[in-house]
Design a protein that fits this description.
- This protein is α+β, with helices and mostly antiparallel strands.
- The protein has a single domain, classed as Macrophage Migration Inhibitory Factor.
- It is built from two helices and two strands, in the order βαβα.
- The protein has a two-stranded parallel ribbon with strand order 1-2.
- The radius of gyration is 14 Å and the shape is globular.
- The model has no long low-confidence stretch (mean pLDDT 97).
Length: 76
């Protein structure tokens, strides 16, 4: 039962967030053979000024073994 948490800059509309969740669900159904009812997706808004402390350091730098797509930026 995958649960995906998407953290991104605040400002996307509810419609955009729904579309993102739908595409992530489709990707998991295709790539990992999950049924739609098995997938859940949440989206967390993060203020740009908080990105490094709330996302980059704890989720990207501190967990390289879980990172399958590295970002193309280095805010440090």
């Amino acid at each position: 039962m995958p649960h995906v948490i998407v953290k991104m800059y605040a400002g996307k509309s509810s419609q955009q967030k729904s579309a993102i969740a739908e595409e992530i669900t489709k990707a998991l159904m295709t790539a990992a053979n999950y049924g739609e009812g098995s997938v859940s997706v949440s989206i967390e808004d993060v203020a740009p000024d908080d990105w490094v402390e709330q996302v980059y350091k704890p989720d990207i730098l501190a967990k390289p073994e879980t990172l399958y797509k590295k970002p193309g930026y280095n805010p440090l």
